[in-house]
Amino acid sequence: MTTPPHVLDRADPLAGFRERFVIDGELVAYLDGNSLGRLPLATADRLSEFVREEWGGRLIRGWQESWIELPVTVGDELGAAVLGAAPGQTVMADSTSVNIYKLLHAASGLRPDRTEILIDATNFPTDRYLVESVADSRGMTVRWLEPDLVDNVTVDLLSSGLSERTAIVVLSQVDYRSGTLLDLPTLTARIHAAGAIVIWDLCHSAGVVPIDLDRAAVDFAVGCTYKYLNSGPGAPAFLYVAERHLAMSGQPITGWWSAADLFAMSDTYQVAPSIRRMLSGTPPVAAILAVQEGVRLVAEAGVGAIRRKSEALTAYALELLDEAELEIVTPRDPARRGSHVTVRHPDARRICLEMTQRGVLPDFREPDLIRLGLSPLSTSFAETAAGLAVLIEFAGARR
Amino acid sequence: MTTPPHVLDRADPLAGFRERFVIDGELVAYLDGNSLGRLPLATADRLSEFVREEWGGRLIRGWQESWIELPVTVGDELGAAVLGAAPGQTVMADSTSVNIYKLLHAASGLRPDRTEILIDATNFPTDRYLVESVADSRGMTVRWLEPDLVDNVTVDLLSSGLSERTAIVVLSQVDYRSGTLLDLPTLTARIHAAGAIVIWDLCHSAGVVPIDLDRAAVDFAVGCTYKYLNSGPGAPAFLYVAERHLAMSGQPITGWWSAADLFAMSDTYQVAPSIRRMLSGTPPVAAILAVQEGVRLVAEAGVGAIRRKSEALTAYALELLDEAELEIVTPRDPARRGSHVTVRHPDARRICLEMTQRGVLPDFREPDLIRLGLSPLSTSFAETAAGLAVLIEFAGARR
After folding, report:
1. Which one-letter DSSP state was computed for residue B389?
2. Structural element, H or E, at residue A222
3. Residues A47-299, CATH architecture
4. Residues B119, B100: contact at Cβ < 8 Å?
5. Quick check: A167 and A107 in contact, CB under 8 A?
6. Which of A98, A108, A178, A231 to mutate to test the interface with B (most CBs of B within 10 A)?
7. Model ipTM value
8. DSSP states of B312-339
9. Residue B62 with chain A: CB contacts under 8 Å
10. What is the pLDDT of residues B370-387, one digit of tens each?
11. What pTM was computed for the model?
12. Which fold is adopted by the domain B5-30+302-395?
C-alpha cells in the first residue's frame, strides 16, 4: 500500500518552494519540468523590473554599471551553487550546442597528437551531431560506444572504447531518455587514466543532482538552464573550463567579447586571459538575469535537499508505476538515476496525447518512451500521484 | 541661422513614434540609440505577457504551439520590413559574432578553390577577429583593405584588393565609427564580377537605411537587433542566406535545431533543407518576441520614412556642429552616411564623461571620437539640439 501523497507532501521540507512558482491551476500535473522548468515568481518580477528600470531607464549606461560582468558573475553563482566550481571557471554564454562546439575545439587543442572523439550512441542528438562536425573539420575520427539504454555508460563499457588514440570523451551525466545517472567521478578518473579529456553535458543534472566538478577534476562541462534551473525557454547555457586548462583553451568563435579588452577595438586580436575567452558576441542581459533568479532558488534550497526530494519523488513514481505493472527503463537504484522516470509503452505517442488532453503534461520521446520529469522545487507528491493516475488509466493498468 | 528644433519636430511625420518608447525625463538627450535602442512600450508589455501567460501558462506546450517557428517567422518579418528579403532566407539566431562565424564557413564552402578573405582594417573588431580565426582554421589568407576613415571602402579601393584568389569579402554597410554608408549594390556587383562572395554586416544600417538584399543579389548578411531595431541589450541577431545558396550552405555548429527533424532524435545527422540549417541550439523565445515588436514598429513607420528623418536629423546635427567649428569625420553627402554623426576631438574621452554627467549620453570610441547616434523613431530634433548644445559647450565652441 502506497503512502498517501498528501502525507508525503506534509513531511516534505521543500514543500514551500512550490509557492514560489506560477502554478497553473487548470493543469492536473506538469511532469515536464525536466524539459522546461516552471516560472519562478521572482523571475517574472525581476524581468519586468529589468526591462522598465534598467533597459528603459539606464539605457547604454547599464553595460558599464553591471551588464558587462553578468556572464561571469552569474556563471560564478551557478558554479558555486550547482557545479561545485570555484570562481573564474564558469560563464553564461550562447546555447548548449554552441558551447559544446567551442569546448570540442578547446579540448582537441589540448590533445593535438590524438585522433579520436569517444561518445555514446545514446547521447543527446546535439552532442552527437556536433562531435561529428568537429571531428570532421579537425580530421579526427568518432568512436561510438553502444550502451544499453538503462545501464548507459558503465566503467567497463567506457574502458572498452578508450585507447591511446582517444583525445576527448563526451558524456551526459543523466541520460535524456532513461534518466540514468552516470558515475561522474569514477568515469572522469578512468578517462584521465587513459590520458584523455572529458566534456560533461550536465543538461539533465544541473540543479537536481549534486555535482562537484572541481573535486572530480573535470576538464570541461556545459549545460542548459531551462530545465531544473527554471530560467525560461531558450535560456542561455553555461560553460565550465577547469582553471588548469584556461590558458591553453582556445575556441574558434573569437568574437569581440572574447578579447582581452572589449572596448579597445584594437587592430589585433588578443584573447582574454580569463574565462571570458569563451564568450563570443554580446550576451543576452535579461535572459542571464532570469538564470540568476533560477540559480538563487536552487542555492536557497540547496542541491543536497533537492536531491533528497528528487530521490523520494522518483521512488514514489516507480512504486505507482510498478503497481500498474508498466515497463520502466529507469534504474531502480536511486543512486543511479536523475530526476525523471521513463516508461516504455508501444502506444506511447497516443498515451501522451491523451494525457495532455486531460491536463497532464508528460514528454514523448521517439519511438515508445513516456518521460516523466519530477522537478523537486515545483512538483508535489500530490501532483505526481494525480499525473500518474491519468497515465496509468490510459496506459492500461495491469496489462 | 538654424531652424529652431521645435519647428522641425512639428513638421516631422514620425514625431508621434517617440511616444511609443519609454523616454527617461531625467536625461537631457540620449544620443546612443545606435548602440542600444530605447525600450518600446509595446515590448515591455509583450515581454510581461509572454513570461506570465506563455512561459508560465503554456509551459512546454508553447514550443509546439508557436515557439518552434519563431526564429523563421520573425526572421521573415524582419526580412520583409528591413532587409528587402523574400521569405525563407532570414532567421533569428545567436549573436552577430556567432552568425558571422557560420557565414564565413558557409561562404568559404562555396569557393573551395579560392584562398583569400578580403576585409577592411576599419571594420568592427568582431568581424575582423572572426575573419582571422576562420581564415586560420581553413588555411586561407586575410587580405586587408586600408581605407580612409571618412571615405571608407570605395569601389576603387575594393577593386584594388579583389583578385581570382578572393573567396569572400566582408563589409559593413555603415561604418561603426564614421557613419559612412557604403554603396551596397555597386560593391556587391563588383565583388560578384570578381567571382567572390560577399557577407554584409548590417548592424549599423538595419532598420534605418533602406536595404534591398534580394535585388542587389547579396549572398549573405548578418546584423544585430539592439540598435535601430530597439530589441534590447544582447538581443538575438539575424542572418540572411540568399535562396540560391541555401542548399549548398553548410555551417559547422550543427546543433539539433539545424537538423531536418528536430524531434526525430535520429542516429544520423540530416541537415534541414530550409534556412533552419543555420540554427544551432534552442532559440531564446522571449528575446525573439522583443525583436518582433521592434521590427513591427519599423514596419509601421516604414524604412523609407525613417530614412528621410534620419537624413534630416544628421543634417541638422552637422549644421550645429559646423557652426561650432568642430571636426566631423562623417560624410557631408547625406547619401553617403547612416544615422550617426561623429566628431573627432583630442579630449573626446573627457568630453563624453562630462556630457554624461550632464544627462547627455553619447558614445566614446577610442582614441578620439565622439559618436552621436540619432535614432529616428525615438529621437526628436529638440533632443538633438539639447544634446549637441552640451557637447559644444564642453568641446569648446569656435576653438
Report:
1. H
2. strand A220-223
3. 3-Layer(aba) Sandwich (3.40)
4. no
5. yes
6. A98
7. 0.97
8. HHHHHHHHHHHHTT-EE-S-SSGGGB-S
9. 36, 233
10. 999 999 999 999 999 999
11. 0.98
12. Aspartate Aminotransferase, domain 1 (3.90.1150)
